[in-house]
Write a structure and sequence with these properties.
The mean pLDDT is 93. This protein has a 4-stranded antiparallel β-sheet with strand order 2-3-1-6, sandwiched between helices. It has a two-stranded antiparallel ribbon with strand order 4-5. The two termini are 24 Å apart. A hairpin with a 4-residue loop joins strand 4 and strand 5. The protein is globular, with a radius of gyration of 14 Å. The protein is of the alpha+beta class. The longest helix has 11 residues. Helix content is 37%, strand content 23%.
């Protein structure tokens, strides 16, 4: 099988709760190769481009505030590119369902995620590309060649 690349964003809620190391360890166990990693102070423009497909959703603005760190003390995002066989699927499976309360308790979102009742924000710890095509677009958005 051919290698593929995928993007993972460790979101500001995970960084604020000092969970980044745990998330990276969980992903390390998938035996994929980490080929790029950086800390990003996410501006509104980048967040809006990243979530462009969700622009018409009622939760779009909250999503942007989450990714820019506005809801979590202006924390940054850790952007990582992984490479390997079935990288997209392996990471999506490890991440678990988007809604942390519906995610399997052994998944990353199930272990570390929560719904913040004050902001009604899904603190789901990571973003993981949902397809090979989206991974390619997202990697180009977050990383220069």
């Amino acid at each position: 099988m051919e290698k593929e690349r995928t993007l993972v964003l460790i979101k500001p809620d995970a960084v604020a709760k000092c969970l980044a190391g745990h998330v990276i360890t969980d992903l390390y166990n998938l035996k994929l190769k980490m080929i790029a990693m950086k800390l990003v102070n996410v501006k509104k423009e980048l967040a809006e481009k990243h979530y462009e497909s969700l622009r018409d959703k009622p939760f779009f603005e909250k999503l942007i505030k989450h990714l820019t760190g506005e809801l979590h003390g202006k924390e940054n995002v850790i952007a990582i590119v992984y490479e390997g066989e079935n990288a997209v699927k392996k990471i999506r499976d490890a991440a678990g369902k988007t809604h942390p309360e519906e995610a399997d308790f052994t998944s990353i979102r199930g272990k570390y995620g929560r719904v913040d009742s004050r902001t009604d924000c899904f603190e789901n710890v990571i973003h993981a590309s949902d397809s090979r095509e989206n991974a390619e677009k997202e990697i180009k958005l977050w990383f220069k060649k």
